[in-house]
Amino acid sequence: MAKLVYPPIGATYLLLPEAATIARVSVHTVRTWIRTGKLRSSRPGRRRLVRRDHFEQFLATHPLVVHSGTTWGRNAKKKPHSPPPAK
User: Any bridge partners for residue 19, and if so which?
Assistant: First the structure.
């Protein structure tokens, strides 16, 4: 049976959707940070929690890159179609 790890009393925790909202990223991105070991988390029950102080430290040491113009994906700007070549 897995060992239960309880969070320290008095610590403030964030759910993954709350952490994602603060960082302005998707929940999937937060899960990736946890899976790759960049961000620590705990799971005292069914939900995964991130300590607020660890999360703030993570954001301070890992600046997020904001892309102003998307060149890929759904929001990519489409190139105008050129007219067909003359025959």
Answer: none
Instruction: Report if residue 80 sits inside a domain.
Output: no
Cβ–Cβ under 8 Å, residues 30 and 16: yes
Residue 68 φ then ψ, to 5°: -80, -35
User: Which residues contact residue 25 at a Cβ distance below 8 angstroms, ignoring those fewer than 6 apart?
Assistant: 64
pLDDT at 62 over 90: no
| 73, part of any domain | no
Beta bridge partners of 13: 51
Nearest to 5 by CA among 52, 41, 57: 41
Q: Does 49 or 2 have the greater pLDDT score?
A: 49
pTM of structure: 0.63
